[in-house]
User: Fold this.
Amino acid sequence: MRRMTRRGQFKFSGHRTRERGAVAVVTAIFTAFIVIAALAVSVDVGRITSERSQLQNGADAAAAALASFCADGSVRCSADPSVNKLQELAGRNAQDGSADLSGGSYGGGSWDPACFHGTLDVPLPGVNCPAGEYVDISNCPPAPDWLTADFPYVETRPHTLEKDSTTILPNIFGKALSGASTGDTYRTCARAAWGSPKSYSSTVPVTFSMCEWQEFMATTGNVYGDKPVGRPGYGGADQPPWPSANYDQVIYLANSDKSAPCTKDGRDGPGGFGDVQAPGCQATVSTGGWLVGDNGENIASDCKTVLANLRGTVVSIPVFDCLYKLNTTYNGPLPGNDVCDGSGSGGTYNYHVAGWARFYISGYSFPGVRSPSYIAATNTSPQGYPCTNSESCISGWFVKGELEADAILPPDGSSDYGSYAIVPAG
Assistant:
């Protein structure tokens, strides 16, 4: 009996072993399925996350570019975003080139590749930007508090684009498991605004008066010169033509030409320009700050070297709205207009920086160093320079241009002096 029992126990034990083996196989298969499913989800989710990140990069780049086109008054502001540089920027910044800015209808609604808010010099096609909901990634989030109705802005909304030009992003593993051939179209949005730089700092050799900018705008009918390409940047292949002679303005050093519109009676406040009083003709100055200038009628020798390297380029120039002559350096609040006209008798020239302009230097003339203007009609002196041997001047024209700034003010057209900054806005 003991032998039979042992045999029965032996047989029973083998049966359990076979059952355990079967369970292990089922468990392994089930575990493998779970692992594959988890892999499918993780890979698809990872791919979607990566694609959305790339789409956002493309949207940000396209929005910043479009805002720059519009702030500059470029015809590209009115171009179809699907056929201009915006498409290239969106695709390039999406890394895989699969960001598309063409419009269309998705899910029963229309999809505009770009929209605008505000008044533009060149109208942007499309519709006014709708109020986005933050919960929907395809819309821009609500505008930040600082983005009031006074600010113009644009939005761009790229979507995914596969290599075969379909507008879906397939779920690779999900498709393999389910056999489905459909995917999803993913969209995102970016918003960029522009305005006058709220604050800006730069190292500069000279400062111009608000009067000079006003004289230029009056002469040209409030139209800036075309921006150059390269150096000298005009008149060649793929370059804008040289502007007409009336654009090339001659700006005199303080007290250099007492008959010039902005330097009457020997004063340059506001009027003329001043070379800065700093080693190497370079001083760091910020918007709303003060700058000390050289009060002589001839430009300092170190400024001559600096300006020679700037001819044929566009430079950032601080524009002053007050010349306060004192016997000391002044860094206080803006005084009244009665002391801002440069009529004081002090020996220190204190210039208050109201904003920034972009200026193309075409020529200059100072005792001991001269270069004729690229615009021949400007060289009216007997010596063939923008001004005579006894005068000191710079010739050139104002252009629109972008400056880097973290914050902006609403562009009002009267105090931004043609400079602007582009900032993300949600």
Q: What stands out?
A: The chain has a mean pLDDT of 75. Helices lie at 2-71, 85-93, 172-178, 210-220, 301-310.
